[in-house]
């Protein structure tokens, strides 16, 4: 069997082991519920992922959950990847692409652009832009080699936009803001799928442009490399122990004396338990976003293993634990096993002079989330231009950015609805 890219370039031999691996990958994507529709499935079965990940073993290239590092900076930090198929499938489902659509991809790996090209067809148009010339050259070469030579690959800072109007914009790097150029190039009723940073957490949101507002059409948790260029944003960080072995990270300024916060963390932990339990398979990222959007002084407690081994912090800090703080205390969300049940109880470890107050506040929020929002519709994320007057903004927790105002609201479960 011979397959062809939409550009009519070189033919692609597909009767080899990569066909089996593609089929297995698609089956796994179905199991993960990342892939739900036939157009997305057909694209994944068609495009040879291994051609965009040279030097990577075939089984790794087609691993549904594995991303591939493309480029690191001088400090060896990852600045470009080919995202895991599960993430790409999820975002393509969110985008709801149709034949004939004009699509802008921000961040160029090549493979994702080829998937998009398969879905919009010969009558559609795909433009991909990246700030890194090495990444651009790589993507252009691989797209040409696999027959997707109609995809335009541009070098530039996407913060400034590109000429044209697009039905869909798919962003493949973590964004802190929605710059004016993105608003302007998105068609009315068009959709932008973008990983947005919300108080240190990333949510991939499908936002539909409707009468000057970007309206949430669904979101999910995922991790991405940070945006580069004019749209880059650096979090604040306060070291609380050792050589930055434990600390608090925040999107904005941490308005407390670091020495006082470090002193609070050094004091014995004060555990407060909520009585709310979850299974080992149940995600509670929804709860973490709820805590973040109901707390003024919020951050993420992070730590190296040395701080855990010193019993300064819980193991949750290894992955980043949502935290609240005051002038004289700090608290963060944890769990503990409930014996013989396979379940885990949600709670808080609090430290310092305000430990009891902070612990009680967050346990109340955990219980409130459990009563009125757990298994419900979840958060709704709306985005307005920064200049929008308050009377035109929906109620909710507002995050003001340079160009936009993000508003996170929490619809409750309908009356009589029971937790699942």
Automatic annotation (TrEMBL):
One of its GO terms (cellular component) is cytoplasm. GO terms for molecular function: protein-L-isoaspartate (D-aspartate) O-methyltransferase activity. It holds the Pfam family PCMT. Gene3D superfamilies: Vaccinia Virus protein VP39. InterPro entries: Methyltran_FxLD (IPR027573), PCMT (IPR000682), SAM-dependent_MTases_sf (IPR029063). GO terms for biological process: methylation. Transmembrane segments: none annotated. Belongs to the methyltransferase superfamily. L-isoaspartyl/D-aspartyl protein methyltransferase family. The keyword Mitochondrion does not apply. Its main location: cytoplasm. It comes from Actinokineospora fastidiosa. This is Protein-L-isoaspartate O-methyltransferase. Its EC number is 2.1.1.77.
